[in-house]
Structure formats: C-alpha cells, structure tokens
Amino acid sequence: MTDVNLIINEQIEKYGRERQALMPILQKIVADKNYITEDELALVAEALDLSAADVYGTATFYTFLDVVPRGKYVIRVCKTISCHMSGKDEIIKTLEKTLGIKLGETTPDRKFTLLQANCMGWCHKGPVMLINDEVYPELTPEKAIAIVQEYIAK
Amino acid sequence: MAKYNVNLKINNIPITVEEGTTVLEAARKLNFRIPTLCQHPDLCVAGNCRVCVVEQKGAKTLVASCAMPVSEGMEIFTNSEKVRTARKHIIELLLSEHNTECTSCYKNGKCELQSLANEYLVNEKDFIKLVYDKKYTIDDFSPSIIKDDSKCIRCQRCVRTCTSMQYVSALAVAYKGEHQKISTFFEKPMNSVVCTNCGQCVNRCPTGALVEKNYIDQVWDAINDPEVHVVCQTAPAVRVGLGEDLGLTPGNRVTGKMVAALKRLGFDSVLDTDFTADLTILEEGTELLTRLKKALVEKDETIALPMMTSCSPGWIKFIEHKFSNLLPNLSTCKSPQQMFGALAKTFYAQKKGWRADKVVSVSIMPCTAKKYEANRPEMRDSGFKDVDYVLTTRELAMMIRQAGINFDELPEEKYDSIMGTSSGAAVIFGATGGVMEAALRTAYEIVTGREVPFKNLDIIPVRGFDGIKETTIKLENCKPEWGFLEGAELKCAIAHGLANANKLMSAVANGTVSYHFIEIMACPGGCLGGGGQPIPTNEEIRRKRMEAIYEEDANMPIRKSHENPEILQLYEEFLGKPNSHKAHELLHTHYTKRKRY
Amino acid sequence: MEKNRISKVDLIFENDGTLVNTVLDKVKKMNPDDIIMEMIDSGLKGRGGAGFPTGLKWKFTKAENSYDKYVVCNADEGEPGTFKDREILDRVPEKVFTGMAVAGYAIGARKGYMYLRAEYNFLLKGLIKKVEEFNKLLKDKGFDFNIEIRSGAGAYICGEESALFESIEGKRGEPRNKPPYPTVAGLFNKPTSINNVETLVYATVIMKYGAEKFKEMGTKDSRGSKVFSISGDTPNAGIYELELGMTVAAFVDEFGDGDTKAVQVGGASGICVPRKKFNDMIIGYEGVPTGGSMMLFNSSRSMYNVLKDYLEFFAEESCGQCTPCRVGCQQLLRGIEAVKKGEKDPSYLETLKKLAQTMKISAKCGLGQSVANPFISIVDNFREEIIY
After folding, report:
1. Which of residues 119-148 of A touch B (CB under 8 A)?
2. How confident is the model at residue A1 (pLDDT cuts 50, 70, 90)?
3. What does the radius of gyration of chain A's CA atoms come to, in whole angstroms?
4. What is the CA radius of gyration of chain C?
5. In the predicted model, is pLDDT for residue B527 greater than 60?
C-alpha cells in the first residue's frame, strides 16, 4: 500500500466513503506531498467512486490544491491591495533573486516554489507570505531573505 | 402530495400554475418566450448563463427565470428596459469570450448563441475580444467528437449531460474565474479518457464547441473516385430523424426519399443496416439460446448470464471502462453496422464481382460512437477496414443540401439488393426495447414453433421511455429439441441512457437482480435519440421519432428477422448457419478492459 | 450615539474567564424561543457584511421541521482588507464556539461546522485542540451538540454561504440558485443557520449582557458595536471594536494620516468613499455597510492601481459559473486598462459602468453583484486618475 492509499483510507475512516471526504483527502495529500499527481487523483476518485474528471475539476477550483509539481516549500506572497501598497513587489524580486527562480517556478532541487496568492488576511501587517502553512507578516526584503535562508538550511 | 395552485402575473397578465413551476415555464404557458442558453429540457437547472433573467417587482436584482419557482402574488416582467439591457450585455459578454469566426464554423446557422446575437442586434464591438488572448487548443483526437474551447460559453449543458444523463463524467468544470473551463481529467484528449463517444453532449451544445468529427469531404472524394465502388448502409433510426434536418417536422418517416437522395448523391449501392439487424437477431438469438442450454442443461458455470446486447458502441465503451468484470456477459455479436461492414467487403463484393480493396463502405448512423466503433482495431475482419466512413444523420442532411436536392419533392425509392431487404423487427432496433422485441419475436418462435403471444406481434411491455423496463416471457409447449426450456420464464430487462444502464449494471453486479437477457442502448430513447441525430432533441421529439419507428414496423410485410429471405439466402450461400465458424470469424468480436477514467 | 466621534468598545475581546460557563449555564435554562426573541430584540445583524438579522435567521431555521439541522460558522474570511475573524479565532475562539452552541440549542441542531479558510491553517492545530475541549464541556453540561472544523483550500467565493456548503460537501465552491435559502435547505440540503465568526461572538455577548445593553449602542438601523479591520495609509492599522453609526469623517479623524483622500469601506467588494463625502456617510446599514474592512488611501496612491488590483482579484476569484461575473470582471479589468493606455476613449468608462450595473442585477451571487460597488464609486469619484 502506498502512502496515498494510507491517506485515503485514514480520511475515509474519519469522514466516510462519501463525497465530503474529498476535500480532507486532497488537503492531506497536499500537506504530505506538496501536490497531487495524476495517478493519485485517479486513486482518490476510485476510492470515493467519483469521476476522475470531476475530482480534477474540484481540485483545480482551489488554489491550494496543486495538481502541478511543487517544491517542498511553497512560498505564497500576498499580492492583494494592502500588501501591494506596502511593497510585495520588492519582496517577490528579492525572493526571485535569492532562490534563482521566477514567480510561478520551482527550484531545480524541488525545494521551493514561488507563487503569488490573493489576500491572506494580514492587511495591517503587509507584506506577508505563507511558506506552506506558516505565516510571515511585516516582511522586509532582509527579513524575507533571512526566513528563506532558514528553510534552505533545513 | 397534492400540489397547490399559485397565482402570479407575467407582463400584467394573470396566470395560475402549480407550485414548483418555474417562472420560465409559466411565461411559456402565456406564450412569452424567454431566451435561454444553459437551460435544456432534458437537464437539471443550472441558472448559469443568465440570459433568461426577468424583472420581479420588488426584487433588488433580476431573477433567472429558469431557476426561480413561482410564488403567490409574484409580478414578473419579461421584456422591461432593465431586462433588455441586461440580456443584451450578457449576450455581448458571451460573444467577447467566443470565437466568432461564424462563417467557417460547423454550426453556422445552427448556433443558439448566433441566433440570440441576431435577435438582440448586439454590438460586438462594445466589449474587448477576450477569446484571442486565451491559448485555446482544439481537441480533435477523437474519431467522433471535436472539442473546441474557443467556442465554449461555459453553459455546462455538456457536463450535466455527461454526468447526470449518461453517468460518464468524462467532462467536468475545471479551474475558476477567468480560467474556468470545461475539461476532461487532466485535460487529456477526448480519445484517451472515459468518453463513450455517445455524442449526447454534441446534441445539447448550443454552439460549435462540441461537434461531431465530420467525414463529408472524404465521402465526396470516394463518390467522385471512378475507381472505387461506394456502398452505403443506413441505420434504422436515421429514416425517422433525417427529415427534421431537411425542413420536415419530427415524426416523419422518410425511408423512400432518403434512399432516393442517396442514389442521387452517387452511392453505387444503397443498402440497409436493417438487413444486418435481422442478421444480428439470428446470431445473437442463437448465442442466447446456446448460452441458456450450456448453463441449464450442461450446468456449465463458466457461462455468463444475463447475456447483454452489444449493438450500441457507446454502451460497449461504457462497460469496458466501468464494469469490466461484466464483459463476459456481453454478446460477442458485432453491431449491425460492423456486421454489415464485414459482409460488404466479402460477401457483397464477391456477389458484385468487385475487388474488396476497391469497395468503400460508408454508413449513415444516428450515432457519433459508431465513428469510434468503425475505427476499433478489431473491426477489420474482412481483411480491410470494414467500415471506412461513418456519417451522422446530420452529415447526410448536409450532403443532401450541398447537392441541391429538394428532399421533400423526391420520389420514394427502394433499397438495392442483396442486403437491402429487412423486417419490421430490424427497424425497431432504432428504439429502446427494439432489439429485445425483435429477439423475442424470433427466439420464442424458434423454441415453441409459435409466434410470440402478443397482439400483432407488438410486445408492448418492452416499449416506451421508462428508464429501466422489465418483462418475463414464459416458454411453454416447447419444441422437443428445446424441451429443457419447458416452463422456464425468460427474464428480460432493458435500459436506455447510460445513467440507467449504470443503475441496472450495479444491480446485476451486486446480484440484487437476476435476468437472462438485457438490452442496453447508450442514448435516451435508444438510437432514435442518438448523438448523431438532428438537433434539437427533447422528449417530445424523441416520442415522435419512436411513434414513427413503430409505424414503420407495423407497415412492413415481414415482421420477424428469421423470415427475411435475404438473410436465409446469406446463410445458404455464404455463412452456413448462425454462429457457424465463418459467422464467428466475420460477425463476432471481443472486448477490452479499460481504465476507469 | 454621537456621529462625529468614534467610540471604542471592549466586548469581543473582553477578558472574562467565566464567560463560557456563565453563558452556557444560562442558555441551558432558557427556552429556545426566548433565546431567539432575545436575539431578534437585540437587533444584531450579520457581521460578515450582508447584514441579515441574526435572530430571524435562527427563527427561520428553528421553524423548519427536520431531524438534521446544522449550525455553520463562516470562518472563510477572504475579503481583502478584512482580518478581524483571524484575530477573534486566535484570541477568543471559545466565544465563537459558545455562540455556535447557543445557536445550535436555539434552532435544534446537534452538529456545528466551522469552515476555516486555508490561509489560516496555522490556527488549525490550536483550534482543533480547543474545540475538542469545548465539545467535552458541552457534553458535560448536557448539550447534545458538537462542533467539527473543516478547512477551505484557497477560494474567496467559499465565503458565500451556499458555496461554502458545496465546499464542505466536497464539491467546487459554486454558489447555488436561491431559493431555496440555507434556512430551508443548506448544508447537506438540511436547514442551516450560517453565521459569521464575529456574529457568533456577539450572540455570546448578548446572551451574557442581554439585548438591552447591546441595543444601547449604535443607531436604529445599526445596533451595537463591530470589529473593524483597519489598514492602508494609517499610523494605527489593526483591529478595533467601535460603536456603529459614526461618520466616515469621524473615523478618518481618528485613523487617518492627515492626508486621507478616500476610504474603501467593506473591502474590495465595498464602496469607495472620497474625501468630499466623508461628512455625509454613516458607517452602518443605513449608510455604507461593512464587514469591517476600512482601507485608507492618501494622496500618494493611484486609485487606478487600487481599482485594477480589485478587478484582478475578482477576475481570479469569481467561481466562473455565471456569465455576468466571469466575463464581466475580465471586461471591466481589460476596459480600464484599455482606457489608461488610450486604446479606448474615456467615454468607454460609461459603457463599463452600464456593464457593472448589469452585473449588479444579473449575477448569480453576491460576488458578481458587488463588483459594481468599487467600480462605480471609484470611476465616478476618481475619473481623472483612471484616464490619465
């Protein structure tokens, strides 16, 4: 049994073999593996007796349920108005330079993916970024570099 | 529970309707036509496109009439200034997202968006054209269906068709916002997913986003090639649908005119799939009786029962994907189209003294899945591709128009022979329950020596639009060689539309039902509601086509497949007897387990 | 209340260790109808932004005859400029749970769901622990009610109530046709009362102090106080609980940086109030309603950029199912870009305003309907900035 089957069974145990188990399953796969592969999505669909296209359609609706390869650490910089006003562009430029990738890309070692996302609810403390589930508000370019360096060292 | 009456006013005219009626339906009763795009009578309500918005007195916003149930005292205005402005905007927005190269579009003149645009005198220049910035690709990998996202208006009729009506769900809505689109699993081409090619989405797509792959030019080329003999066959349901695409009302039987038109188009032989429908009955009926004998007399536990029909290629692909453990239950008989194809390049070519490689075999089908079926690698038992090109009813209508034939004025002509004579049992293949009825007419008579015990041979319980039908026929006073069936009750079930097929198959797989013989047709109403039939479709239209089919049957001089003289001749001269070695070689096939998506 | 000054309040975050027990014990002795009457009497309206009277919502849900009913806490705070629910969930989650339990008791639900947006996943572990403790407390006190937390996955539209139900059910978060309304057929098609995080805390507060004390604050149409998320060009960005009914001018006096040219009230989907209207606009349901987002802009900001940001947001976050919203958002965005670049005549803004008006009356849900708010208010008041 692969990890994914474990995840599927664990969540089905909790939520039942019903459609409402879909989000928890997909969320857990992303939490553990950073993104969902084609084969995994097909397995999930089969386990819940759903159409694979339907499951794909559901996953792609949600920004955080990635179905394209992502790095171990997914960095999401908030791009919405207050973070824009407080300098998210500079943060992104800094991160691009530090990681050597462009926005939307993943480092060749599959460690980091750099993305933008919509409002994260830290408008009074922008710019802000998420690295996986961890939140980093009140960023400056220096702070951003320091944070990413910590992850590089991990 | 009794339904209450609700009183409301539409454009100041009072009307009383049952509770649960939508504003759209109520307005139609008063002869106010409200435009719609996402709404379709065969599908559940979506309320997405918003062109059906109307004004409700006292409401802050307009309401979608297709999704809004009537309520007591409601006052609705269907054509106020507010409504007209909003509607025009919505149509213009759809056009801005839509590839409006209408003159080169396959659906030109038959596009619902195009006619709305015309009706509302829209100004296309008002909004910025968004369609060109999006990198749309055309998916033409499937031999049956072309999906062109640049023409998609996201009404989701196709998704609801594929999901609710057909339980296939090859198509789903993916992504959101400006990136939202109708997609297959991981945006794979249509030919590599669970799509059954049934074409029901094509029948309901309001624009040219989903159309059949047409082979009109290839067929013209063959007709114009003096070196080849072009043989065509016409499926049972085509003769009750074709007229709709040529200016006639639904329910017209146009068999004779269709034959006349085909001859004028230049086909060398105009033959009938009904002939091989009769042949299917003999092959499949014999197969059923053989299976029953092996199971009941020889107690052979490897025999799979119930036996299931295999005429519908959409159904075949469905079961290959979704119930592959039931594949042994499928009859090994090819569909009538493919039996015809295999014979066209063998028996028929020999008869005519033609070289098989100089025969081009064309079939006219109410079906898009038939295009796929003809391309299956198994379908080359004549040594060549058995059926070269499959045209839908719609494509034939287009060829007739292209040729400038005044269809309605044509004389009624007869099919060529041999392989042009058929029975009433064959023509009802075009309706759900028809294969069952035809099979019972023959099998019962083989076993008992008597006609089926139904007035005028009409086996009413297997007819009609119920999703799943059942019937039991008791076999009594059997002929000595069928004595083992004495007193047996032959239990039969019929389903049409793949959602119903899915229900029935689940019951079979779970062992909650037990039958001997099951007929399945992928499309609603059977082939008469096929994905290649004229557009639009709805239950009323399908009912008219069905009436026409049973009329055709009732008017045939021969009503039973085993009495078709050309079939008897075919066995005598070529095949030997039903299920003979040669018959197996040419007329039977096998199936493949496929991925779940 | 005095409209010309702001009045700070401390109810939501009030430090009261006995609150949960006091309220639960009090409620347990009350008749559900009396709880609902108290809520109706308080005049509390939904704090998520739409402002539906909370007591009525509970009353309608209670009136439905169904064995299964649900309380749903909408913690999918995604409106740009709003961050109060995060702060509430971080600091006083037990008050939210208490509000859910009160609602459940009042309407006859045995199950509550909290739908937390994925961006707040860092709160999840802590909340799950606390909710387990709270469920145990409820059991000990004899309540037949328990709460489960479900997560979103990055979709603004899931803050729309019916989209949120769809999401919990494992589907795309697409808003449903209404009617039926959630009180009749909500989550899993059962009668459901869905309330915002802050609303539920106020329900707890009202249960503690009674409707009278709450009613003393605010105005006739906007009773009580409200938590505001204040950001943008202000030296005092953050969370403030203020009495409702102040003017924008009074607000700017307190929170502005001395150079405020506009305040966006109610987030991206709210209304932009320009300086010349500060004195006339009351913050509340009779004036500019708000889910609590107040974003200030000073004269260094280009309102074109602000509007463009909003429209980009909506074009991405629209669920995409209905035409006016999916295509309309893209057209408004492309339209102002084209005007800015000179590809379209400035008069094109009038065409776009008419389109926005159509979106307002023909879109399927609140998202598409409210895009007109920022669009028309910004284009009308800052036309020059959009064109040049």
Report:
1. none
2. very low
3. 17
4. 21
5. yes
The C-alpha atoms of residue B228 and residue B345 are separated, in whole angstroms, by 12
Nearest to A85 among C78, C83, C301 (CB): C301
For the segment A67-117, what is each residue's pLDDT rounded down to a tens digit?
999 999 999 999 999 999 999 999 999 999 999 999 999 999 999 999 999
Are the C-beta atoms of residues C105 and C71 closer than 8 Å to each other? no
From chain C, pick out residues whose CB is under 8 angstroms from the CB of A121. 77-78, 82-83, 85-86, 117, 119-120
Residue A13 tokens read as 């145990």
Query: What secondary structure letter does DSSP report for B347?
Result: I
- Among B308, B380, B313, CA closest to B344: B380
Model pLDDT, residue A127: 97
Residue A2 pLDDT grade (very low, low, confident, very high; cuts 50, 70, 90): low
CB C207, CB C102: distance < 8 Å:
yes
CA angle B270, B272, B277 (to 5 degrees): 165
CATH number at A99 reads 3.40.30.10
Ranges assigned E (strand) in chain C: 70-75, 111-116, 146-151, 192-196, 225-232, 238-243, 260-265, 271-274, 293-298
Q: Which residues contact B464 (CB under 8 A, 6 or more apart)?
A: B432, B433
pLDDT classification of C4: cutoffs 50, 70, 90: confident
B5-79 CATH: 3.10.20.740
CB-nearest to C320 from B94, B127, B177 is B177
Give yes or no: B183 in active site: no
Compute the mean pLDDT over every residue in chain C, rounded to the nearest whole number: 96
For residues B180 and C321, is the Cβ–Cβ distance under 8 A?
A: yes
* φ, ψ of residue C376 in degrees (nearest 5): -70, -40
**Model's pTM, two decimal places?**
0.96
Q: Tell me whether residue A149 is in a domain.
A: yes
| Cα B437 from Cα B178, distance rounded (Å) | 51
| B199 closest CA partner among B262, B251, B150, B144 | B144
Instruction: Identify the burial level of C254 via C-beta atoms within 10 angstroms of its C-beta, where 0-12 means exposed, 13-18 middle and 19 or more buried.
Output: middle
Q: What is the extent of the structural domain holding A9?
A: 3-61
Cα–Cα distance for residue pair B188/B211, rounded to 1 Å: 18
Tens of pLDDT, residue by residue over C322-373, are 999 999 999 999 999 999 999 999 999 999 999 999 999 999 999 999 999 9
What gap in Å lies between CA B128 and CA B418, rounded to an integer?
Answer: 60
Rounded distance, CA C321 to CA C363, Å? 10
- Topology classification of domain B229-597: Rossmann fold (3.40.50)
Average pLDDT over residues C115-132: 97
Set of chain B residues whose Cβ sits within 8 Å of the Cβ of A36: none
User: Among 3.30.70.20, 2.60.200.20, 1.10.580.10, 3.40.50.300, what is the CATH number of B93-212?
Assistant: 3.30.70.20
Strand-pair category, B229-234 with B359-365: parallel
**B173 and C323 in contact by Cβ < 8 A?**
no
Whether a cis peptide bond, with omega within 30° of 0, leads into A36 is no
- Taking only the tens place, the pLDDT of each residue in B67-88 is 999 999 999 999 999 999 999 9
Average pLDDT over residues C377-385: 97
Q: What is the mean pLDDT of residues B489-498?
A: 97
* Residues 6 or more apart in contact with residue B296 via CB below 8 angstroms: B484, B485, B488
Q: Tell me: the pLDDT tens digits for B465-488?
A: 999 999 999 999 999 999 999 999
**Does any domain span residue C342?**
yes
Question: What amino acid is encoded at A48 in this protein?
Answer: L
Q: Pick the residue from chain C with its C-alpha nearest to A122.
A: C83
**Model confidence pLDDT, tens digit, residues B402-426:** 999 999 999 999 999 999 999 999 9
Indicate the residue type of B306: P
